[in-house]
Give the backbone structure.
Amino acid sequence: MASTTKWVTNLRQSIKNTCGTGWSVRGRESKGELITQVTFRYPDNQGRTAANVNLAWNAKNTTKIITAVEALNDLMTQKNLSLQKAVELRMEPISQDKDNNFSTWEALVEDYLNEEKKNHRATTVRDLQLRLYRFLVCFKHKPIPRDSETLFKRFYDIHLVNMSSGGQGRRRNVGDIRAFLKWAVEEKGAPDRWFPINTKAASKYIGVVPKGQKKKGTTPISTKDLELLLESLERDNEHGMRAICILSAVYGIRVSEIAHMEIKDGVVEVTTLKQNAKNMENSEVSTRIVEPLNLPNLPNEGQRIVSLLESKKLKFPAVINRAIDKANDEKGYKIIGEVFAKKLNRYWYWKQLKINNPDYVVYSMRHSFAWRGSMEVKPAIPYRVLASLMGHDLQTHLRYYGGWSKEEENKNAMELANQSVNSQLISK
């Protein structure tokens, strides 16, 4: 008995020497076994907290107990964690030889969504939940991943292998898992072996677009299809939906921007709402005046629709107005575009158009503004003017709006250019 008291006394003194006088340990019976209980006393007599660690209470485990308390002390000090959370995330369960690591990672995923992503848009959180669910699935298969590298290998084999190489699907999955692991290590004390793989290593799992294939951008709706769609909406008395289509395709605005659109004497001013985590917290909001790029068979239609909206003789659909009313809540402005997309995707003529043009999306109308401005009207509108009207910089315009083309359009453009050259030669 004396020897037992001696090792306990020495153990407690060692812990106080390394971690401070607020720490103590003792044996506690749990499920018929004597395990280690750690107690931490807050300074200034603010109370104390205790938690069990998964170590048998005996002299053989002296070094392990000291190491465990030191790790808990570091976690609580550096990461500002409670003792209970530090015990949970000391990460012994997240090792290669424990069965309960799934539940520990599951708890981390829940914390990540609740702490880090609670103010993000509902759709962003929904997509992230799916990717983190895929992450958790990796721990249900043996051998269980033991570090970041083996985790990504498993993630690739289960989830990424069937996604397009170099595509956004792989890129977003890898990016979200890397961000989560970085948070787990830096904020929650996961061991360094779980720090995410670097960019070069991640690129192996993202892959590249196969040779000979182009990265597909958004396909703009053709002028002919757009005019037919507007004609169909007019016949079916879908005047509010038609107005939004015109604002997007003829004025080039984002659908979400109708929430902060001001019309005065026919002049349309919109607030730029390119929504992301960076500018959601930016108090400075930019506004811009937009101008109509009317369609060949609908001259002055943009001005006519704007006049009707200004006079209140034309209104958006009720479901869109309800979405606009919610635009300032935690779901943000994207909900407006989502509601509009759902309504348009149910519209019969839009479905007909997508039979022969499966790449058409709601954003195809905004992209048509950029396409017509640079490729169809003569003279072409300079890219910097189109970028300014659409509410983004020139680099963004060239990357996302100015690079789409089809062989047929390229051929037609070159034929017109050659005709112009030939006519100039003849005139000389």
Observations:
- Strands lie at 23-30, 33-41, 48-56, 261-264, 267-271, 287-290.
